[in-house]
Amino acid sequence: RTLHVEATPAGTRRFLRFDAVAARCQVWLNGQKIAENNDAFLPLEVDVTDQLHEGENELAVLILDYERIAQTEEKKHLVSKTLTPSGNMLTAHMRGIWQDVWLVERGDVYVEDLNIRTSVREKTLTVRADLHNTRATAADVTLQLNVADWAKDTDPFGGNNVLELPAQELAIPAGESSTVELTVPWENPSLWQPESPHLYWLRAEVAQNGTTVDQLAERFGFREVWLDGPDFILNGFPVHFFSDWGHKVTQLHHMESWNLAWFDLLKRENFNHSRLHTHPHPELIMDLADEHGILITGETGIHGSGGDQAADEETYWENARDHIARYIKRDKNHPSLVLWSVENEMRWNQDQTELTKQKLPEMYQLFRQLDPTREAYHEGDSSLWNESDQSIMSRHYGKECGGYEWWTKEMPLHAGEMCTYHYMGPNTNFHTGAGDRLWADYNLILEAAARETAWIIECGRTQGVCAFGPWNISCLVNYRLETETIRPELGDVTTPGYKPQLIKPHSAEFRIWKGTEKAYDETVANAIQARSFRPFAVIDLSHRRSYYQSQSITRTLYVVNDSTADQPGELFVTLKEAGNIVEEKRFPIDVGRGRVQQVDWELTLPASGTGVTYEATFTNASGEVLDTWSQDWRLTPKQLPALSPKPSGDVLLIGSGPAEKWLGELGLDFSPQASWDAPVPEGVGLLILEKD
Q1: Which DSSP symbol is given to 474?
Q2: Measured CA distances, 101 to 17, 181, 324 (Å)
Q3: Is the pLDDT of residue 73 over 80?
């Protein structure tokens, strides 16, 4: 394209920045190649001051495929794999300039980078500033840093200072860079947290002899994250990630309106987190998450499930190191970013060597070296190594995601992908109690999948599991009901942001073109999923609903507090028959934010009647009912009626256990046999096997 510019002002430099180009590219300006890029997801920036001239300039970008492994005779059985991290099966075949392009103007001595670190525990702000001098002579400059409150669509340099840092004097040699780092106390900042995501500007000004030569404003939030045993801590309280993401088959999710509709779904249904799955996402999503209080896990393009990564090659891991360093540089100051995922499911990449298992721990250490303020982990793959040497245990799918009776709680358990939404069917969900009816109705399948998901989530919440990622609500469960082709109003196409010319039928997860407050259609799963993530929950894990009359039992209840405050109050547990309370117990409770409290209710069931209702209600100190749990129970007489008609032939019981007692209560004569070693006698009409 032709780029028309005015002459570069004296004392300034101009930079061309591509936010992302897939997969590789060469950039040419006025017939001269000025840059090459080998990463499909992260920015490319180049100083073009000396190549630009006043008037018309020709800018050309050559788009290239990923560099892939050669198809030698030795490797002809392999899919053509990429030598750089390429994400999932969609992004591994993506091509083009898929994010915005900018012409940026800076001073000839400019702020190259700002690294902002905040500590809630130490009440400090630390800033590391990198400055670069492009001049042919040394530069003596003053760096002034201050903090101001952020407000949307306002001049970052227009507000009042809330914190001023000491001025720094620097002497920067010609053509070189200098770094300054300083830490200052900050006693009472407004914290960034999901319920109140307060943001600040860090404003940097470079001056020489009293004249400003460069300015840069970087947005940040004051917050701190760390691990404490089994807990992930945000600003001093345990936080649990209720997470959603989905495979997007269109580019609509690059639009601000799409992401706002998605965040609306998350908040309506009690989600608070997203792992940006399989690759760095556009920074637009990070900016919106900062503003709306959505917690984010950033994940690299090292993704194995699609089988696209050439991870048997040393070159791949050299490029992976560059990918990680650039990813951290881009997103390090986003307060919503609380965790790094080194990789995802590389166990399924169909590697031919052990190189992946050798290199991934090195990638983890690189994250820890470049960003010690956030933890990193192996998504779905921690069991490839000794987990006692790791900081987070990750699991994908299955009931083990609930952590019940196996998780030792020495470190956080993170269930980043779970449930059967993306492979649900009658055969995978009949065990939930719906049975053969699932073959007749898709909605019954969806309901069964949601109920099993809720069971695992509620189980895990009682155990303190730090993350649940049901896979997934926004893109699999969410219906796409629009039947017409939509041609949105594009507005000024030269302004930043993705602008689709058309939206095909049944392709959009959200009705972003209608501007409605709620841009999606609920399914039967939505309410079930939302309840499983209710911020404050009373949970009884037992599914038993049948007892004998007069039986003495113990039921265990868990009070789970993921609300935004400590919750002192009372748990009132009752047993009702025909609406009348026949048993009751009051438990004083004071459960801290992010914590779980367990209580055991010992009771004797009524001596008569066929059914009762079990109910537990928590009321906080302000008199507000925060949650209620209830079940209907069936009661039966303890002495069972005699079995009639009796079985023909003799009855043989093999093994030891409770069946001997039950057979006696049925008035059934039987012969016991300890094991299978002896043959079954002739004349046996009924053979009963104990569970052992």
Answers
A1: I
A2: 6, 31, 22
A3: no
Residues whose CB is less than 8 angstroms from the CB of residue 415 and which lie 6 or more positions away in sequence, other chains included: 394, 395, 396, 401, 402, 460, 465, 467, 468, 469
596-625 exposure pattern, b = at least 16 Cβ within 10 A, e = fewer: bbebebebebbeeeeebebbbbbbbeeeee
Tokens representing 339 are 């965790």
The span from the CA of 304 to the CA of 306, in Å, is 6
Contact status, residue 17 vs residue 91, Cβ threshold 8 Å? no
- Among 610, 687, 675, 607, CA closest to 650: 687
Q: Which helix (H) or strand (E) holds 447?
A: helix 442-463
Pairing of strands 109-119, 168-172: unpaired
Between the alpha carbon of residue 686 and those of residues 216, 663, 691, the distances in Å are 85, 12, 16
* H or E element in which residue 444 lies: helix 442-463
pLDDT-derived band at 76, boundaries 50, 70, 90: low
- CA separation for the pair 23, 81 (Å, rounded): 13
Which of 34-48, 179-193, 321-335, 517-531 has the weakest average pLDDT? 517-531
Q: Is the peptide bond before 23 cis (omega within 30 degrees of 0)?
A: yes
How do strand 567-577 and strand 671-673 relate by DSSP bridges? unpaired
Angle at 550 between CA 547 and CA 552, to 5 degrees: 75
Q: Which pLDDT band, with edges at 50, 70 and 90, does 643 fall under? A: low
**Cis check: omega of the bond before 472, within 30 degrees of 0:** yes
Residue 588 has pLDDT above 80, yes or no: yes
**Whether pTM exceeds 0.85:** yes
CA distance 606 to 550: 5
Q: What does the block give as tokens for 182?
A: 């300083």
Amino acid, single-letter form, for residue 596: V
Measured distance CA(176)–CA(163) in Å, rounded: 30
> Would strands 241-242 and 467-470 be described as parallel, antiparallel, or unpaired?
parallel
Q: What are 180's strand-pairing partners? A: 129
Q: Which residues, listed in sequence order, are joined to residue 587 by a DSSP beta bridge? A: 571
Q: Check the CA dihedral 671-677-681-686 and report its sign.
A: positive
| C-alpha 170 chain-centroid distance | 41
Percent of the chain beyond pLDDT 90?
82
Identify the residue whose tokens are 């830490």. Answer: 183
Statement: residue 20 has pLDDT above 90: yes
Question: Rounded distance, CA 88 to CA 73, Å?
Answer: 26
Q: For residues 663 and 654, what is the distance between their CA atoms, to the nearest angstrom?
A: 13
CA 488 – CA 477 distance, rounded (Å):
25
Q: What is the DSSP letter of 544?
A: -
pLDDT at 490: 83
What span, in angstroms and rounded, lies between the C-alpha atoms of 247 and 95?
A: 18
Task: Quote the tokens at residue 121.
Answer: 């525990």
The residue type at 464? G
Distance in angstroms (rounded) separating the CA atoms of residues 143 and 170 = 8
Q: pLDDT of 114-152, one tens digit each?
A: 999 999 999 999 999 999 999 999 999 999 999 999 999
Which pLDDT does position 79 carry in this prediction?
65
- Please provide residue 447's backbone torsions phi and psi, each rounded to the nearest 5 degrees: -65, -40
**Residues 6+ away with beta carbon under 8 Å from 516:** none
The type of residue at 554 is T
CA-nearest of 112, 94, 96, 101 to 18 is: 101
Structure confidence at residue 462 as a pLDDT band (50, 70, 90): very high
Beta bridge partners of 191: 222
